[in-house]
Amino acid sequence: MPSSVKPAKLFAILTPVVLAIACVSCLHPDEESSIPPLAPTAGRVDPGLGPGTRALSSGPGYKGSPSWSPGGGRIAFTMDGSVVDKPTESGRLRRWTTRDFVARDTEWTSDDTLTMLGAAPASPSSGGTQSSLYRAHTGEDSLKLEKIARGVLAMSPDTDGEGLIFAFDRGANESGLALTRGSAEVYKIYPKPIEGRVASLSPSPDGDEAVMAVRPEGDTETSELRTFDLRTGEGREVMRLDGKREILGTPQWTEQGLFFVAGKQQGTPVDDDGSEPLYNLYRVPTRGGTPELAPGVGEDFVAASISVSPGGSRLAVIGRLNPKSSINVYVLEPATKSLEAVTTNEDMEIKTGPDDLMWSPDGKSVAIVARGTPSTEPEVRTDPVDRILRDFYNLYDIPVSGDTFG
Q: N or C: which end of the chain has fewer CB within 10 A?
C-alpha cells in the first residue's frame, strides 16, 4: 500500500446486491421503492438535489420516516428498525429504542415526546409480533417505552401536532379509530366501526376530519377512500377503486380536495417499454365523485410519495415527469395547477416509501431520504469519509420556495 494512502481512508463500497442482503431484515413492504432508479449519469458528481440542500444525517444505515419536532429543532427517523433523533443543525444521534425493536413509523407529539408504531421483541408465549403504539419522553430513560395501544394499523399526527389519530384492528373485518392527546394514553375511542382494514390515514387541514385508505379483508382487488368526521364519529365512502388497482401510501387532504396515489397492484404487468405509468396522482372532491388525474402534473407523470404542506395549500410529490425521466421532488399548487421541480436530480436514488417525505413545521422545506446511485461493480476508494457518505441512505433538507405555512 502506498505510504500516502492511510488505511482509515480506504473504503469498499459494496454492490447493490450485497447492500440489499445486509439490510433485508429491516425492510418493511411499505418502504420498498415503487419507482426503480435509472442508470447513473456518466461523469456527474453533483447529486443535483438543488441549491441550499443540506444533509440532516450521515453514515451507513437504512433510514426512513423522517419526522420534524414541532419546533423544527430536531428530526427523528427510523434507522435499521430502531428510532433515533438528532438536532437539525448538528450533533450526535440519540437512540430511543433497543436494537431489537422493529419500528414502522415515528411521530413527534411535542418537542420532548415521540410516539412510535412498531413491534417489540415477541415472547415465546405471545404467538408472534403485533404492531403497537408506544410513547417515550426526553429527560427519562429514552429506551423505556410506554405501550399505548395494541393491534395498531396506522397513525398520523393531528393538525396541531399535539396528538395522534390512529386506526386499530377490531377483528371480524373491522377497524376502529381513536385519538391520543398530551400525556393521556387514549382519550377517545370512536364506537362506530369501519368496515375493512385501514391502511393509512391523515387529518384535514382544520383537524375536524380524517381521510383513510381502506381495504376490505381478503379483497385484493378493491381499495376504498373514506373520510371520517372526528366531531360526530361518522364515516363516509368517497370513492372505490376496482380492477386490480390499489391506493399507495397515505391520501392527503388539501384545500382543493383529496389527493392520492393509485395504480396497478404490485405484480400486475405493465407495458415493456415503460410507456404506461405504474402509479398516477389523482384528485377527488372531498364529498365524493369520480377521481381525475391531478391537474397540473400531466398524464405521463409517475407518482410515488405525497405530503401536504402545513397550511393545506401545497402538495410535495416524489415522482417522475414520465416513466423514463429521473426521480425528483416537486411541489404542486392545486389552486393554480402549477407544478414546480424543487430538485434537478440525475444521480441520486430518492427513496419513495410512503413515509419518506415530510414538510418542515414552517413549510419552508421538505425532508427526503436519498443516496447516490450505487455502482454495479465493487469499488475501492481512497476518498475521505465525508466524500462517500452519499453512497448511504441519509436524510436531506430540501428548500421549497413559496409562502411559509403554505
A: N
